[in-house]
Amino acid sequence: MSCDSITSVEVRSQPAAELAVEMSGELGKVARMLESGARNVARLFREAQDADALELLQDVLDVTRDFMGMVSHLRDRYLGGADAEFVARSEKLSDLISEMSEVMESEDWVLLADLLEFEFAPLCEEWRVAGETMHRQLEGICRQ
Question: How many CA atoms lie less than 13 Å away from 92 in the CB half-sphere?
Answer without folding.
Answer: 15
